[in-house]
């Protein structure tokens, strides 16, 4: 297929929003500047657990280069930009007195976006918990509900005159399933997992209330990573493990938040942490469902591990991205349909993207036809979902820039823009030009 070919977008709404997403720890750098406090990720990066020994100290240096990055978005033509606020940058200890210098960075970024005609979509939590709060138990302490609500209220009061789109959490199921604060990921940490799930759900509900109280015209959601969990073999044990993981990965947060109930199979384990009125505190009215989707997950049974699962082999017939993630656009279509059926909210796809190791060629160009083919196929699948009645209103590519890819450090690249981590120079990839062409073609 010629790399210039665009997907079918004929069934998308005329006011459909095209965007790009990033997160604070993955791009900002400047971790010790202007009074920012340490986050749990600064500490993890020094624990030796990140395979490449990378840190977020410099990352993409977005803290100093945000003007250039907003310029890239303007060239791309996106209507919206999803970013996150680093909680320890604005509240170095997680609570108590605010750090004016940190807040003013987000002032400058937001003003720059608005001047460029790009709508800011602000996510309160993309995994960089203030280390000071972790030392008080982090999400395992029920006080985290108040810490988070107070932080949400500060952001709403300070930035809510210009920001109207707010997400409480990014992928709560991911950071709880993979949280180091649970300890060794065996059966012994399951009780802590249930406590964390419940506290984070309560923190979501409390933050929604704090945002509504301070921003009259706020449009609020939570961002969920939904990926079908499939057994990696025909055995009944693997099928059972996949069903169990599916509940935790895909339903543990959206069910109580959007429907006011925990999935049946979890209720007994949540019960010891439940106080009267909790479900009503969690289930606050929302304006939309934020969906992050990449691929299905293949699961095998492993009885001694947390929830009794492990990641299994992918079926040999399934094509993979260079970093080994399955390419299955039809699973995206089905996921959109499920979210629509289960929760009935307007959907914004706030992450979808392709990870590779792409480097510049001899001419300095970064040519990434695999990413273009991936995005085209996934956008076609989204259009199919829309044609069958799914209320999908926006699509944001992960990510504007190559960035700090958590446990994989800087090796895995998801950007439409290549970042040379030595010079910090940005080079738009061919997918950048392709996405710009798509946005241009769909706008009157
Ligand atoms: C998301 N999985 O995480 C995050 O929101 C981003 O910060 C991250 O950079 C991006 O996806 C790419 O990884 C995920 O195992 C983590 O399927 C794990 C999975 C999916 C998404």
Automatic annotation (TrEMBL):
It catalyses: Hydrolysis of terminal, non-reducing beta-D-glucosyl residues with release of beta-D-glucose. It comes from the Bacteria. The keyword Hydrolase applies. GO terms for molecular function: beta-glucosidase activity. Gene3D superfamilies: Glycosidases. The keyword Hydrolase applies. InterPro entries: GH (IPR017853), GH_1_N_CS (IPR033132), Glyco_hydro_1 (IPR001360), Glyco_hydro_1_beta-glucosidase (IPR017736). Its EC number is 3.2.1.21. Belongs to the glycosyl hydrolase 1 family. PANTHER family: GLYCOSYL HYDROLASE, LP05116P. This is Beta-glucosidase.
